[in-house]
């Protein structure tokens, strides 16, 4: 049984991923600390990388309280046609995300699991995920990649920011401390290179585009333009 099963919402119970209903209320206080103050910088990198036209449909997977989802919606300048959708399995995260986004026209949130996305094939121009992949084990990583490729249009890009194999002693210290603190085997998998292994086994072409604090990498994955 999942460690915090009794605290999980009905949707969260559908996944083996590490969901955060229990942390929803404190998440926005903790996230900047856990990213060493770089949370918003990662968001800016993701948005720059997407080089948006302004009218796209974007999916934010494992969106938490929807801070990046809101930044993306703001960057989508055509408020009539664009839409940024945030998805998370923790219903309490989604409740807070919806509250924070009240009044924003081009934003939408769904409580659902990433390994079974409730969207049609080829329905998004791009997808993003920040600090989500270290919450799901290797088999789920591969399922989520397959699902993301399914819902992206041909040529669509998926920008991922997550814990990676550390490259410095400081990065090793941060990554191993996170593993020790949260007792989360999924973090150890990322440290051991399993995220990259899942990318290799998946449907995307991928590359690492930048590396931060010695253990966080920004990846760009691209779906083939031809079926
Ligand atoms: C560390 S938080 C990241 C939130 C946000 N993207 C950010 O950068 O602050 C990871 C999120 O993944 C969610 N999650 C875990 N497993 C999931 C799954 N299978 N499907 C959807 N969301 C999941 C958790 O509930 C949690 O909100």
Question: What does this protein structure show overall?
Answer:
The chain has a single domain, classed as 3-Layer(aba) Sandwich (Rossmann fold). With 227 residues, it is an alpha/beta fold. The N and C termini lie far apart (40 Å). The protein has eight helices and seven strands; from the N terminus they run ααβαβαββαβαααββ. Strands 3-2-1-4-5-7-6 form a seven-stranded mixed sheet, sandwiched between helices. The model has no long low-confidence stretch (mean pLDDT 94). The longest helix is centred in the middle third of the chain and has 14 residues. The site of S-adenosylmethionine has 22 residues, from loops.
* Count of helix runs: 8
Mean pLDDT: 94
Q: Give the distance, in angstroms, between the N- and C-terminal Cα atoms.
A: 40 Å
Largest sheet: 7 strands, mixed
């Amino acid at each position: 049984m999942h460690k915090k099963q009794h605290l999980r919402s009905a949707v969260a119970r559908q996944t083996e991923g590490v969901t955060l209903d229990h942390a929803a209320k404190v998440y926005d206080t903790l996230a900047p600390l856990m990213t060493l103050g770089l949370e918003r910088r990662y968001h800016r990198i993701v948005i720059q990388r997407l080089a948006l036209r302004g009218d796209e449909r974007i999916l934010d997977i494992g969106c938490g309280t929807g801070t990046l989802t809101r930044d993306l919606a703001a960057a989508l300048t055509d408020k009539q046609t664009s839409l940024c959708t945030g998805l998370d399995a923790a219903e309490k995260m989604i409740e807070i995300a919806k509250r924070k986004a009240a009044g924003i026209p081009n934003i939408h949130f769904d409580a659902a699991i990433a390994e079974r996305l409730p969207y049609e094939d080829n329905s998004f121009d791009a997808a993003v995920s920040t600090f989500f992949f270290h919450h799901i084990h290797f088999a789920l990583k591969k399922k989520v990649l397959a699902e993301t490729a399914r819902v992206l249009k041909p040529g669509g890009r998926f920008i991922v920011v997550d814990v990676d194999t550390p490259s410095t002693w400081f990065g090793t210290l941060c990554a191993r401390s996170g593993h020790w603190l949260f007792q989360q085997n999924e973090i150890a998998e990322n440290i051991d290179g399993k995220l990259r292994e899942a990318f290799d086994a998946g449907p995307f072409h991928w590359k690492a585009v930048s590396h931060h604090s010695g253990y966080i990498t920004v990846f760009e994955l691209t779906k083939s333009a031809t079926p």
